[in-house]
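Sanity check

After download, print the first record. It should look like this:
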Amino acid sequence: LRIAVTSIAEPFLSGPLLTTFAEAHPHVIVDVTVTDEEFDIVAAGFDAGVRLGEVIEQDMIAVPVGGQVREAVVASPEYLVANGMPEHPRDLVRHRCIGWRRSPENAPYRWEFEENGTSFNVAVEPQITTNDLRLMLRSALAGAGITFATEETFRPYVESGALVSLLEQYLPSFPGFFLYFPNRRNMAPKLRALVDHINAGNPGGRRGRSR
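Expected structure tokens:
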């Protein structure tokens, strides 16, 4: 079962979902490629992909994985003592930031916020930019600056006090990650098994939908 998964899909990549699936289906071999490139998963030989819903093609079937998500802005206590705390997202342009981009050909991701029901983004100029979420996390823990990713990525470190969550009032939740695959009449049993396993863990979710 070949799956292409974005590096930020923490609900899928954190471990428990795949572990319980492998235990329940010992004869299914799972091959996960972690990539942030956007490409035709069918042409590349994948059975399914996992992405944020907003970037999935309209003709795909999409099954929610992990429910709603929120972004988070975090920094270490040491960084904030030395540099102060931003009061508004636009203050971020005056801070050292740790940014993400899909590949060297892409501009750094613009950090997205909402205020009084209106969405806006801030084009921070990161001092450190990478496509590796782990490097972003470790750099923030080391005091290199402020960084931005899904809340779930930072939760253990915020709870332990190693990182401080910032600007929470400007970061609403939104539909998160989806397993997606082509709308085929006869779904392969291995893929059906994964879809059923995900749905069993999301009893309040929908049983998949055509986008």
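If your output differs, re-run the checksum step. Summary of this record's structure: The helical segments are 10-13, 16-24, 77-83, 133-141, 151-160, 189-200.
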